[in-house]
């Protein structure tokens, strides 16, 4: 059983998407760029040098592909999502963009972080945040606690000293604040935008 992510072919000048191959699973194989140019009319009509290609992992951004229109930023070769309803006013575009960015911020926080002090990766979803808060309170209430057993994503359950755990808690807070700061910066850009095109160009 093979799992093949989508390929997105786009116009290098405008960023408009020419072909989205979609995801495939089963007894399938990865096609080459040359094969795709022979298969898809939108590509066969083009000069290959004028077309860019993004190769995504299977399942990557599946939730966003199901909800939003998108294009590619040719300069950065990244996807720009457009949550704005067709024909929306500037205010409606801003509201939709802010809701999108807020959701992306929450996802980035929940995705977790790599601890610089331990080298391990920690999930930081709502349950994990509650567990971190609870364990931190226990350490305050019981100064004699010397070690903490904690789950990591890369090494399973590990033992952290009291000092190590406190460092991880600080790193978790920094991770969360970094994402919130990024959201605030993008929110300010959205609010300051004077055209829908400016709003559309703001991406997480």
Q: What's the overall geometry? A: flat
Strand elements, count: 11
* Share in helix: 40-55%
The oligomeric state of the chains shown is single chain
Q: What proportion of the residues form beta strands (DSSP E)?
A: 15-25%
Q: Give me the secondary-structure category.
A: alpha+beta
Sketch the topology as an H/E string, one letter per element: EEEEHHEHEEHEEHEEHH
Tally of discrete structural domains: 2
Largest sheet data: 3 strands, antiparallel
Side-by-side strand order of the widest sheet = 3-2-5
Low-confidence stretches: none
Termini separation = 33 Å
Task: Report the C-alpha radius of gyration, rounded.
Answer: 22 Å
Compute the average pLDDT.
94
List the helices and strands and how they pair.
Blueprint: E1 2-4, E2 7-11, E3 17-20, E4 24-26, H1 33-39, H2 41-44, E5 51-55, H3 62-65, E6 69-73, E7 78-82, H4 90-111, E8 113-114, E9 121-122, H5 126-141, E10 147-152, E11 156-161, H6 162-192, H7 196-200
Antiparallel strand pairs: 1-4, 2-3, 2-5, 6-7, 8-9, 10-11
Helix pairs in contact: 4-6
Description:
It contains seven helices and eleven strands. It has 204 residues and is an alpha+beta fold. It folds into two domains: 2-82, no CATH class; 90-200, no CATH class. The longest helix is centred in the C-terminal third of the chain and has 31 residues, at 162-192. The chain is flat, with a radius of gyration of 22 Å.
